[in-house]
Amino acid sequence: MLDALEALASASAPAFDRANPDQPGVSYQSWAGVRRAVGGHRGASAREELLRACDGVYFGDPARADFMAPSLVGGSLAVGRDDTFQDGMVTVASAKWGTVRGCFPADHLDEVGQPKKSGPNMWTGFDHLAFHRVLASDLAARGF
Q1: 20 lies in a domain?
Q2: Among 2, 33, 38, 144, which is disulfide-ready with 106 (CB 3.0 to 4.6 Å)?
Q3: Residue 48 maps to a domain
Q4: Does pTM surpass 0.70?
Q5: Is residue 11 part of a domain?
Q6: How do beta strands 99-104 and 29-33 pair?
Q7: What would the pLDDT profile of 47-101 be if each residue is shown by its tens digit?
Q8: For the chain, what is the domain count?
Q9: Which residues constitute the domain of residue 85?
Q10: Nearest partner of 88 among 73, 104, 66, 106, judged by Cα
């Protein structure tokens, strides 16, 4: 297990990147989830920071930060400060690869519909099923 954690550490990323270069003909794109341990209002400067972190695209209300799932809060402290733009397991900066498509108001669990989520988040409106359907349709329309 320790080997797996070391492989996922930021310090291991450069070696991984060298061993796994981007391949021609592959469309690399990324999305990132954003949540805070403590939700609430985002002031103007925090909204600007959020939009900068998300390359200008945020699919949600940038004035409102939503609460992270309690089970992710402890890990989020290891990922970064609780005000770092992250999803509880991955920072926005680390999630970016290839074409950055933007950020959405979801933590790491909401991104995949856990635990047992069947519809949109009642606070943010993020719907993992709709997101993945749109993503699949977009890839199909582009021939992937």
Answers
A1: no
A2: 33
A3: yes
A4: yes
A5: no
A6: parallel
A7: 999 999 999 999 999 999 889 999 999 888 888 765 679 999 999 998 999 999 9
A8: 1
A9: 28-141
A10: 73
